[in-house]
Write a structure and sequence with these properties.
Elements lengths: L2 H12 L28 H28 L4 E2 L7 H8 L7 H22 L6 H26 L23 H18 L15 H14 L3 H17 L10 H5 L9 E5 L2 E2 L3 E2 L3 H5 L11 E2 L5 E2 L11 E2 L1 H7 L11 E2 L17 E4 L2 E4 L3 E2 L19 E5 H14 L3 H15 L9 H16 L5 H7 L3 H9 L8 H4 L35 H5 L10
Antiparallel strand pairs: 1-7, 2-12, 3-4, 5-6, 8-11, 9-10
Helix pairs in contact: 1-2, 2-4, 2-5, 4-5, 5-6, 6-7, 7-8, 7-12, 8-12, 12-13, 12-14, 13-14
Length: 541
């Protein structure tokens, strides 16, 4: 039971009674605030403000997942909807008006504002809670800035509550290095303040020392400080070795995502949803389900042999699995991760197409292109409630991610041989053989591929490829990944993009946005921010 989650759901909504409807960071303060003259004067009120950071965490994490998947070779939108943002991400045609990244920007600063308010009201908090509240506030401030700096580069660095809205116009975009310095400082203090675990059941799911160490390791890895990354992540690995029942790999892949196991031993940090008395459903489930004909699809077989059918009628086709990902997942017949994919969904509107590149479903003697569907957000424990009711969480960090980050830090730093050991831990749990990679270059690529297989749809792919400098070659290959000669409706089921091929006369060729560019791969600073400032927009916008 998600006791903490229920509290956050209730307080996260009620605490917004004075929140502005604007998406702009440069908005008239204090409309983006509670009545701070009278609120935050005692322990419980400060905690309510802190809960609001968790509310924004849920919104931000979902958007981060969508961007990391749709802007890469993980996912596509098949255009059976009017979701311009998601289609633009899929087709590399986004600009400064992209709503989903504008939302990440604004929600991040709302989160930062809440965290700064908590930090400035710590004198009103009891001694028994002061360190924890400070640690949580610093943790989520670091989380917000870590997303901002990776998506947008330089950004305003705000570390105090702003009481005069005129002061907002004085902020400039601070350098990436300065922002990272603040992130590292915040996380180091959070590591000192937060417990490794919570013994109080009502607090399980809140930020911990382990989560702060994991994020700090991720920060160092992004900065290419491999020595500090390895050192920091080793602390998490050592904690798992000493406490295997509390932190480690789940034996069964499905248990990672099971809504009845929301804070399982593999989960380090997750934005929580709920399907109980207070319902806040995870919309990513609906995003992952294709909107196709017919709604009644072939039966899906569970691991125990039972069968069930997915009702496709509520799907919106926003987050569908690319053929690169699907083919990679089924390349090894022993890979257990394929259990989290339903490969039976098909579209009668699509022309019959037998092809080695496209999965085929045979219905009444006719072959149809199928739509591999991720089940990571499909609430199998509450399937009878329908596709609009998922309490599966957005997992931001889990132990398999730690092992692969640690392997990367070791491979780029001191020991490729040692790195292989941790890479193989993840592969062994997945049921596949140890990697054959042995030299640094091959192990580097093996880790990238393993992260693709293990962590897809969890908000890592864009960050991974940008961090390693591989985003352009991978995406150029993705844009060329087509089956020549397919009709447009079939191309729509093959990564959602219609292109011109040598043997096809339909469609318009699409190109990767950064082809031939050497500038940092960044998203555009939201349009409304530039209208209120004299900032220079990022390149290509």
């Amino acid at each position: 039971m998600k006791t903490f989650n229920k509290l956050v759901l209730l307080l996260g909504v009620s605490a917004l009674f004075a929140t502005s409807c604007s998406d702009s960071f440069f908005d008239r303060y204090p409309t983006d605030s509670m009545q701070m003259e009278t609120y935050g004067k005692e322990d419980t009120e400060v905690q309510n403000i802190l809960y609001d950071a968790y509310y924004y965490f849920r919104n931000i994490s979902g958007s981060v997942i969508l961007v990391n998947s749709l802007a890469t070779d993980e996912a596509y939108d098949n255009k059976r909807n009017n979701s311009g943002d998601h289609i633009a991400l899929n087709e590399s045609s986004w600009d400064s008006t992209l709503g989903i990244t504008s939302g990440i920007w604004s929600n991040s600063y709302y989160m930062i504002n809440r965290c700064n308010t908590v930090l400035e009201r710590l004198d009103n908090v009891s001694d028994k809670n002061k360190a924890q509240y400070r640690g949580e506030a610093l943790f989520f401030r670091a989380y917000a800035y870590f997303n901002l700096v990776r998506f947008f580069g330089p950004a305003p660095l705000v570390t105090s509550v702003i009481s005069n809205y005129q002061d907002l116009y004085k902020y400039d975009r601070e350098s990436v290095d300065k922002i990272y310095t603040q992130i590292v400082n915040d996380l180091n203090q959070a590591i000192n303040d937060l417990p490794a675990e919570y013994t109080d059941a009502t607090k399980v799911g809140r930020a911990t020392k382990i989560a702060a160490q994991t994020m700090l390791g991720d920060v160092y890895l992004t900065q290419k400080n491999y020595s500090l990354a390895a050192q920091t992540l080793k602390n998490v690995v050592d904690y798992s070795a000493a406490n295997p029942a509390k932190l480690g790999l789940e034996k069964e892949i499905s248990q990672i995502y099971n809504s009845l196991n929301p804070n399982g031993k593999e989960v380090i940090l997750a934005a929580q949803f709920n399907n109980g008395a207070t319902v806040v459903s995870n919309g990513l489930m609906t995003n992952c389900i294709p909107n196709i004909v017919p709604a009644d699809q072939p039966a899906r077989v569970y691991a125990d042999g039972t069968k069930s059918k997915i009702n496709i009628s509520n799907g919106n086709s926003i987050l569908l699995m690319t053929w690169e990902l699907w083919n990679a997942l089924k390349a090894d017949s022993n890979d257990k991760r394929i259990e989290m994919v339903y490969a039976g969904a098909y579209d009668q509107q699509a022309t019959s197409i037998p092809s080695a590149e496209v999965e085929v479903v045979t219905v009444n003697g006719a072959d149809f292109a199928c739509f591999p569907t991720s089940l990571k957000y499909f609430d199998q424990e509450n399937e009878s409630l329908g596709q609009s009711r998922s309490s599966c969480d957005n997992i931001v960090y889990r132990y398999a991610d730690v092992l692969l980050m640690y392997a990367e830090a070791l491979n780029e730093g001191t020991s490729t041989t040692e790195a292989v050991k941790y890479l193989n831990e993840v592969r062994t749990r997945a049921g596949v053989a140890n990697t054959t990679a042995a030299n640094q270059a091959d192990v580097r690529l093996a880790i990238e591929n393993e992260r693709f297989l293990e962590l897809h749809f969890e908000g890592h792919r864009w960050f991974d490829l940008v961090r390693t400098g591989r985003i352009t070659p991978v995406m150029e290959a993705h844009y060329k990944h087509r089956v020549p000669g397919l009709a447009p409706v079939i191309q729509a089921s093959n990564n959602g993009m219609v292109v011109t091929e040598a043997s096809s006369t339909s469609g318009t060729a699409l190109t990767w946005k950064w082809t031939g560019k050497t500038a940092p791969v960044l998203f555009a600073v939201p349009y409304d921010q530039l209208q209120l400032t004299k900032w220079t927009q990022n390149e290509l916008y």
